[in-house]
Input
Amino acid sequence: MNKNFDSVIDFRFTVTNECGNPQYTPVRFIIVEDGGRPQPFENFVIYPVPAKDMITITNTQSESPVNGAVLYDMFGQEKTASQTVSNNSIILDVGNITEGIYILKITGNNGIEVTKHISIKR
Output
């Protein structure tokens, strides 16, 4: 992810666990303005949405081949998903990942990274 952020907003939420004890959860929102630049990977198709067992990332233009993809939960923890790369596609096996909203980071061969929100439902 680009280290030149336009805004970084930190929150701290207080939640109460089953025993009635407070726990604190830090959350960071990062706002990046694209300045009207063309978006890389705008020719990628991600399906199915929501995902169940597999996520397929397909490139519709061979000039921007995908190099890899990683899933993160909303706390920024990387989730293990095996991937199969073939032609202009990557298939992520998300069958072992719990239902929820995740961030999918796609990396191109040119080093450019793009993130998308992905939903996994069973």
About this structure: The mean pLDDT is 78. The beta strands are 7-16, 22-31, 44-47, 54-59, 66-72, 78-79, 83-86, 89-93, 100-108, 113-120. The domain at 36-120 is CATH 2.60.40.3080 (Immunoglobulin-like).
